[in-house]
Known about the structure:
Layout: H1 2-16, H2 36-51, H3 53-68, H4 77-80, H5 84-108, H6 120-133, H7 149-161, H8 174-188, E1 194-196, E2 199-201, H9 203-221, E3 226-229, E4 234-237, E5 243-244, E6 249-252, E7 258-261, E8 273-275, E9 285-288, E10 295-297, H10 305-310
Antiparallel strand pairs: 1-2, 3-4, 5-6, 6-10, 7-9, 8-9
Amino acid sequence: MVKGVGYGIFHSVSAFCNAGVDLLGSNSLIGYAGSPLINFTTILLIVVSGLGFPVWYDILGNIKKAVRERGTRPLKWLFTRLELQSKVVLVMTGFLILFGTVLFFLLEYSNPATMGEFSVTKKLMASLFQSVTTRTAGFAAVSQSALRPGSRLLGCLLMFIGGSPTGTAGGIKTTTAAMLVLTVISVLRGRKDTECFNRKIDETVVRSGITISLVTFFLLDVRSDGAYDLRTGTGFPESDVRGDFSDGNRRVDSRPDTVSVQGESCRADDPDVYRTDRTGDDGTCICRKGGENDTFPFSPGRKNYDWIRGKI
Length: 312
């Protein structure tokens, strides 16, 4: 009982924070794919936290006004009297959830490795969960490694957009994505300004949104299989730093400004040492230096931090 309560609290906080951390092992929530209670509770926590705190405040304030002025306010005012950001967030969030649910349902309907064996109701619930959790929450109700390529691409798109401003989700934000779509529509219609709910969006906001989207896309496009120096802004593929291992040394053949070392001399907390591969835990690292090519004898057990710093 105590363990169940503890698990419930932990996973509630994790879902609300869009952390995606669970205590259930590598299968995440796959074992509970047919549980409406767990699925819809997790979905609600993810969605509510991803809306953003200003949207909550706006919605609650509107509800209070509706209660105080009962009978004198049209029901539609619950939405039409919201701030512009709240309207955009709610519409975009609803659209992304529906869009993702339908596409995941169609793409994975007959995939036996994910939801092919589920009933139609369970497939819809799993598709809804996948659509919501993909936007930076990180839980899983079906096997992520078994998803079809189209589903993976859809997941990347939803993760790129993420949640809403001042919420707990990541991404470029729903408002930025909505602004980009509205800008495209305005251009296609030959309009000068980007408009949303009959209101003009300032040009500086449009430019900021485009910049955020392009910069984010560029950062995601940086090759993850190569070393990248954040201090100098330079990167080089891993193939450029492969050395010759025919003798007892490790030598860099193609990069004059790097030296590869092996063994305990490669310290993880050294700011001038860049880890490139831990396969087999051989301690392979890349160390920046400003001299000629050099070699360093393989000597396990020796600490050569001074030698490394001397080459910087």
